[in-house]
TrEMBL record:
Membrane-traversing stretches: none
One protein family per Pfam: AAA_lid_3
Gene3D superfamilies: 1.10.8.60, P-loop containing nucleotide triphosphate hydrolases
Family membership noted in the UniProt record: Belongs to the AAA ATPase family.
PANTHER family per UniProt: AAA+ ATPASE DOMAIN-CONTAINING PROTEIN, AAA-FAMILY ATPASE
Protein name, as recorded: AAA-domain-containing protein
Keyword vocabulary terms for this entry: ATP-binding, Cytoplasm, Nucleotide-binding
A GO MF term: ATP hydrolysis activity
Amino acid sequence: MWIHPNRYYYLGLLEQEKHMLFMSYVLNIKSSLTIGDLAAEFPAEPEKGLRHYLALAYNSQPSVLLIENIELFFPINGDSPLVLYYFRELLDNCFKEKVAITVIGTSINIDSINPAARSLFEDEIEFGTLTPMERLEIFETCAKNLDFSLDVDIKDINDKCHGFVAADVVSLCRMAAEHSDTKSIQQTGEPCELKISNDDFLYGLQKIRISGLQEKNSVQKVESVKWSDIGGLEEVKSVLEESVIWIYKHVDSFRHLGIRPSNGVLLYGPPGTGKTLIAKAVATESSANFIPVSIPDLIKGEIGESEKAIANVFKIARRCSPCIVFLDELEAMFGCKESSGSFGKKIISQLLLELDESDSVDQGVVVLAATNNPEAIDPSLLRPGRIDRLVYIRPPSFTERISILQMQNVKTKFSKNINFREIAEKTENFTGADLKALVQRAVFLKFKKYRAKKLQLNSEIESSIDQADLLEALSKFSPSVNLSQLDMYEKFSKSLD
């Protein structure tokens, strides 16, 4: 396997990758080994195959033996002691004889490697998630070899590529180029040099399978939700703009003025008020990486594993900053220490450690948490420098309810006689989820009527939802949040003033 010395410059790889590839170029990789090679050439005799490749590397000095997917050779619960024995023997001989052989192993999951085999490697280099700036550098490197039309904004495309690794960026550019070629053939009947357009990249973004999103607790490709997709909540949007989005959009100004923004924001309020949807909108509007964390991601059966999981989440977040860590149902994971036992105290302490670390260094990591029960959260998490900005997501007001109902018209056909003001007046204390469910209930009742009459819903006018449908649905519908619950939230909100 030979590597061209300039290949890595074209790919725009990270410094660690450049170092590894350059070393491979200088020493010449004479032996490249995969588990498939052994299975094909030495069936049922993996130790013999390994000795063959070791001898090949030994006789081709200076050389590099590259073992791909090393966890398949030495699994954590493996039963091939001879293979491990010969591997250890090779490394011992290399050390004693000072031979010019370098052994490189690659793995997609280092924790699945047999500890005895892992201990034989002196160095470990982790290729983390790309930061937005590193990702942009790769795009710009690829752009030197491609012809873009004027409507292509590389920075805008880069903002849509959360969780991409280097290979994903290169694949996206290739897919955009191929789509451009396909269009030219369809338009002219033969391939010609059309410039790659923004639409070509959007096509690639829809089709690409992102390899960087396959790991648990990694950066996620966020559903694109904009402020305009959320009806009402203007005050909440304004607070989150200042608390989170400005941090990423005005980094230099914040540093110049000496402003230290909040490291954590808590969204609290009744179920169905759109807290999760708001979190997605914050990630979209800020163009930050996004890591959603749920209870199963953190609660582990083995002692110490939950603390490791929390540490790993923040490790990834710092690596790919700017990044938003979204902790949903915060009270379920980090309730009061007094009532959560020794296990709860340990994971709370670990989260506090990570929050304090984020506060001590300008790392571009913001924790966005959500809860339906703010009083159940351990108070230590809500102290200054931690999750110290609390935002109450109330049920929508009268005007906000009108806005939410009007937005339902995008997916549901309303007749022209709909009086949204009347419906809004009759739905006080309804959450956004309640209003959406109300419309769906009206659609279902309409469908039942047509089924009873054995009519087809094929007429746009006849199949639209009218005022009577909504009022009938409303007569059989109650808000999901009662007055005592709302009173609890209001008292908690006033206690913060």
